[in-house]
């Protein structure tokens, strides 16, 4: 075994022999440092704060599974066992957790932090593309949910905002009153900070704007626009910011109280916004901008599913009488 230099002897061992010279030159001498650099390195398309947090949580779960084994000593067999341990998660979650682990090993190998990459033969599961109408509310389901939520001002405002704006739950949680503004035509907009820290303007309908102002007045806050106001757009009874899990749990309770056959998540309300907009013949590009879809293909899937039955080949069969 090659001995380490005196200045690295007290650091955690990363491989059985020595730390590769390239990694030494870059100052990467242990796993924690490598992961920090991996999550925060400059990228052509920067990860958002929420994405980095999710990936960090995934890598913590991986490190817990390998139970102290240095990354450079992890074997292919361990990675296979880790993949099998994720089978109780949804396919999309499995795909994310495996892909971020594979990306970490690829990053480490390219830097020379490890001699081999044991994840080369590991593949993440494919996520089936589900029809969007299965992830959206029907009109009757949306009406039931709204009627049930109407008795609870906070819950009602959340449902209304999610359905009419299509924002993601994390975007709703981080939204501030100061993010609202009025344009030259008197429309109220919400400058939403989305994925990749990209801002996009979202219209606040006049009836929704009235609900927001009423909510502020009830809680003793100024209902007028103020770009300096950093209070949350929707807040708890203690005037604190809602967490994502809190909003999800509230939506689940509302679903049960409304007697719906399934539990409605905030993301289903986002899908509902896109579906309802396109069904009302909103322009495709306009819906793409509002939803913050990077690719137009994502938005087109909603349009395809809406037209799926009305444009079905079965509608053309007229040769026989039934």
Automatic annotation (TrEMBL):
Keywords: Cell cycle, Cell division, Chromosome partition, Cytoplasm, DNA integration, DNA recombination, DNA-binding. The keyword Membrane does not apply. It is found in: Cytoplasm. CDD domains: DNA_BRE_C (cd00397). Transmembrane segments: none annotated. The keyword S-adenosyl-L-methionine does not apply. One of its GO terms (biological process) is DNA integration. Coiled coil: none annotated. One of its GO terms (molecular function) is DNA binding. Residues 29-109 form the Core-binding (CB) domain. It comes from the Bacteria. GO terms for cellular component: cytoplasm. Residues 132-315 form the Tyr recombinase domain. PANTHER family: PHAGE INTEGRASE-RELATED (PTHR30349), TYROSINE RECOMBINASE XERC (PTHR30349:SF77). This is Integrase. It comes from Tumebacillus algifaecis.
